[in-house]
Amino acid sequence: MTRKSLYDLLQVRADASAEQIRQAYERELARLDPSRPGAEQIPDRDIQLVAVKEAYSILGNEPQRNAYDARQRANATADVLLAGDLPLHEETPLWHRPQVWFGVAIALFALIGFSTWRSSKIENQAAAMQRAVELQERAQSGELADRERDMQESAERRQRDREQEAARRVEEQNQRAFEEERRRTGYAVEAQNRQQERDEADARRAQRARDNEQAQLERQQREDARRQLERDKAYLRELEASNRRRNNSSGGDISSNE
Length: 258
Description:
- Helices cover about 75% and strands about 0% of the residues.
- By secondary structure, the chain is an all-alpha fold.
- It is rod-shaped, with a radius of gyration of 56 Å.
């Protein structure tokens, strides 16, 4: 397998313009965005994202890109040291093969020391290539796996933090809703109590009015009874007087007859 270049990471030609490289970088960022639906199904997504950013940090800077191109031309034979057995083009998606990322990581680590170069010398290129070979051996022995595990743990921690934050927000919303409901309930109970007090006051006033009417009626009945009694007594007195007069009249008539 021929070692993948930074241009291969961004899926552009080596003679691509700066604008084409920028567009390819933005396209890869969007494809590897963790918030994009289905992004979690992309194999080695975190590693790919780091590799794409590293590639653009070099290719997006003209002096660093020139130094990188010069190194690529001067070290055509060094690519053999980083070659694997993965074909350049095959039906299996490139990013699905972990061997690719060994070469990618090695290339990126090798390029770190070249970020400030303006011109390259054969001796420095040979030293950088030796360093790349050493990094490849370290990656093959498990360093890349450790880095991937660290990235996975970091992603899990971020996910847990997001879940805890979401749970906290839901709890705050529930608490606010509960307090609002309690206030509404308190207002309803207070209004109900005030209405009940008004109803009770109205009932007391109505009862007092009925009591007053009943007392007035009773007083009127007693007064009517007293007046009736007086009329009855007066009638009886008149009747007795009439009887006496009648008796007196009858007695006088009897005496005259005798």
